[in-house]
Design goal:
The chain has 526 residues and is of the alpha+beta class. 48% of the residues lie in helices and 11% in strands. The longest helix is centred in the N-terminal third of the chain and has 27 residues.
C-alpha cells in the first residue's frame, strides 16, 4: 500500500453501493420504461454493469415553457439523454474506440433548442449584434435554418469580439465573445463530446466538468495534504495558456477519439475564426479565446494529454514517495513526499511543456515546503513558518486545531482578491450614487450573498466579517457624498446596514464531509 504503482489507501471507507443516486435512478427508469433505440444510432447492447456517467443537472429551462409544451419537451429531453447514454456506454467499454458518426447528434433541433435556452439571456452580443431575445422571436425557424446549414456543411464560424476585463493583479484579461449561433452550436457540441471525454478524464481534474466545481478541487487538495504523506508542493502557473496552446496538437488530441470529420472540421473552424479587435480582423494561429462555450472543454482535453496522463505515468514509474495532483482548468498543484521528487518532476515538466508549446511562469512557479511536518522541520532548522500558496482565490496555510492540535490546511480569502472586489464595488457605487437607497441596498445584498457562497468555507469566518465591515465603511462614505447635507450618523446608518448587508456565514461543509459523499471511497487526488 502507498507504494509507487500500487493502489492507495482510500480517504474514506469504501461504500457498498457502486452507483450514485442519479445513476441508480436512471438505471431503474430505463429498466421500467424499456425504451427502444433511436433510429439514427446503431444498436448497442445495454450493459447494466457500466456506469451511466456523471449526474445530470436538471433542465432549468422547463420553467420557461408553456404548459402545453411541457410534456413534449420532457419527452424530447429524455430522448436526447438516451442517445448520449449509449455513446457514453460505448466509450466506457472501449477506451480506444473512435467515434465516426456524431455530428447528427449536434444538429438535432431538440439539442440546439436546449443549447439556446442554456445560453445567458443578457449576455453581450458578438460581432453580428444578435441578442438572445431577438433570436428567440422566430426561434423555431432560426433553429431549423441553423440545423439545415450544419447538416449541409454550409455553416460558417464568425470571428469573436475581443474585450478586456481587469484582473485582480491590475492586468487586463482578454475575453472573446462569439456570436449567438456559434454559442449554440458549441454548447451542443460540448454536450455530445462530454459523453465521451467524461469517461476518459482522470479523477484529479475538476475544472469545467459536469457535476464538479472549484470547491470540490479545493476540498480534494485539503484532504490530500492532510491525509497523505505530503511535505513538499509544486505551485505551478502556465504562462498565457489559453493564448498559446497549439492548434496542430489540439486537433491531433481530438482525433484520438473522434473520427467524424465534420466534428473535427467545425472545431478547426472555431479555432481559425480569428478575433475582431477595434474593428480589425486578426488571424489567430494558436490559442483559443476565453469566453467561448467550447474553450473549457478544449483546454481540458489539451491538458489531459499533455499533463494528466503524463503525470499519472510519472508518479507510477519515477516517484520514490507519494504524489498527489489536483487540477482545475490550467491551475494545478502537485504534492510530494520528498523534495527530490518535486525538483525532478519540475524539471521533467518543463521539458514536457516545451514539446507542446507551453511554458511555466518563471516567477510564479515554485517548490515550497508545506504539509503535516513542515512547521516542525522548519522550526528545527530555524527557517520560520512554512510558506503559503494561493489556489482558486484562497491562501492555504499550515495550521492546527485549537483543542486536539491536529494538522489542518487553513484556507483564507486572498487579500488581493478582497481588495480587488472592494475596488469594484466602490466604482459601482460611484456610478449609482444618486439611485434610490433601497435599489442600491438590494444590489449590495446580492453581491454580499454571492461572496459568502464562494468564500464561505469553514474557518474563514473572520475574513468574511472583515470584508463586510469594509463594505459597510465604503457604503456609508458613498451615502455621505450624495449631497452636502447627506452626512449619516451612526444611528441613521445602522438600520440600513442591518437590513441590506447580511451577516457573514459559512456556506460549505468541511472538506472531509463533502468528499465522503462525492468520491465514494475513491481517491480525490488520483
Amino acid at each position: 500500500m502507498n507504494e509507487p504503482g500500487k493502489s492507495d489507501k482510500p480517504v474514506v471507507p469504501q461504500m457498498p453501493a457502486k452507483m450514485n443516486y442519479w445513476e441508480f435512478h436512471q438505471w431503474i427508469s430505463q429498466r421500467a420504461e424499456g425504451r427502444g433505440l433511436a433510429k439514427e444510432n446503431e444498436p448497442i447492447v445495454q450493459d447494466e454493469r457500466l456506469p451511466a456517467g456523471p449526474a445530470k443537472q436538471v433542465d432549468r429551462t422547463q420553467s420557461r415553457l408553456s404548459k402545453g409544451d411541457t410534456r413534449k419537451s420532457a419527452a424530447g429531453a429524455q430522448d436526447l439523454r438516451s442517445e448520449l447514454d449509449r455513446v457514453r456506454q460505448a466509450a466506457c467499454r472501449d477506451k480506444q474506440m473512435k467515434f465516426t458518426s456524431l455530428w447528427h447528434h449536434v444538429y438535432n433541433i431538440d439539442r440546439l433548442r436546449e443549447a439556446y435556452r442554456a445560453c445567458k439571456h443578457d449576455a453581450a452580443a458578438g460581432v453580428d449584434g444578435q441578442t438572445w431575445p431577438a433570436y428567440g422571436k422566430e426561434l423555431e425557424s432560426n433553429l431549423q435554418n441553423l440545423s439545415e446549414r450544419l447538416a449541409r456543411g454550409t455553416y460558417r464560424a464568425r470571428p469573436v469580439k475581443r474585450i478586456y476585463i481587469p484582473k485582480a493583479d491590475g492586468r487586463q484579461r482578454p475575453i472573446g465573445i462569439p456570436v449567438l449561433e456559434d454559442k449554440i452550436v458549441q454548447r451542443a457540441t460540448v454536450k455530445v463530446l462530454n459523453a465521451i471525454y467524461e469517461t476518459d478524464f482522470l479523477g484529479f481534474s475538476y475544472g469545467f466538468r459536469p457535476g464538479r466545481s472549484a470547491h470540490m478541487a479545493l476540498d480534494a487538495l485539503a484532504v490530500g495534504i492532510q491525509t497523505r504523506k505530503v511535505s513538499w508542493l509544486l505551485d505551478a502557473d502556465i504562462r498565457g495558456f489559453f493564448d498559446t496552446l497549439s492548434h496542430e496538437w489540439l486537433v491531433k488530441f481530438v482525433e484520438h477519439r473522434i473520427a467524424d470529420d465534420r466534428v473535427v472540421r467545425h472545431i478547426q473552424k472555431w479555432l481559425n475564426a480569428g478575433v475582431m479587435e477595434e474593428g480589425k480582423h486578426v488571424e489567430q494561429e494558436e490559442g483559443t479565446p476565453q469566453g467561448g462555450s467550447i474553450s473549457p472543454l478544449l483546454a481540458n482535453l489539451y491538458l489531459h494529454y499533455v499533463l494528466d496522463l503524463w503525470a499519472e505515468q510519472w508518479r507510477k514509474t519515477r516517484a520514490r514517495g507519494e504524489v498527489i495532483l489536483v487540477r482545475y482548468a490550467d491551475d494545478f498543484v502537485v504534492g510530494f513526499q520528498y523534495e527530490s521528487d518535486a525538483k525532478r518532476f519540475l524539471e521533467d515538466l518543463r521539458e514536457r511543456f516545451r514539446q507542446f508549446n507551453l511554458e511555466l511562469h518563471a516567477d510564479k512557479t515554485r517548490v515550497i515546503e508545506f504539509g503535516r511536518f513542515a512547521a516542525e522541520t522548519r522550526a528545527r532548522r530555524g527557517d520560520g513558518k512554512p510558506q503559503t500558496f494561493n489556489f482558486l482565490g484562497f491562501t492555504h496555510i499550515c495550521d492546527k486545531t485549537l483543542k486536539k492540535k491536529v494538522f489542518i490546511v487553513l484556507r483564507r480569502t486572498m487579500a488581493q482578491r478582497m481588495r480587488a472586489k472592494l475596488r469594484s464595488i466602490r466604482q459601482q457605487l460611484r456610478r449609482r450614487l444618486h439611485e434610490p437607497v433601497e435599489e442600491v441596498g438590494q444590489c449590495l445584498a446580492r453581491v454580499l450573498s454571492g461572496y459568502y457562497r464562494y468564500y464561505g468555507v469553514p474557518r474563514n469566518l473572520d475574513a468574511l466579517s472583515r470584508f463586510r465591515r469594509a463594505l459597510r465603511r465604503v457604503w456609508r462614505a458613498m451615502l455621505a457624498r450624495r449631497s452636502d447635507r447627506a452626512y449619516l450618523t451612526r444611528e441613521q446608518y445602522e438600520p440600513l446596514a442591518a437590513r441590506w448587508l447580511p451577516l457573514a456565514r459559512i456556506c460549505h461543509p468541511y472538506p472531509e464531509q463533502r468528499l465522503a459523499v462525492f468520491i465514494r471511497g475513491k481517491s480525490p487526488v488520483r
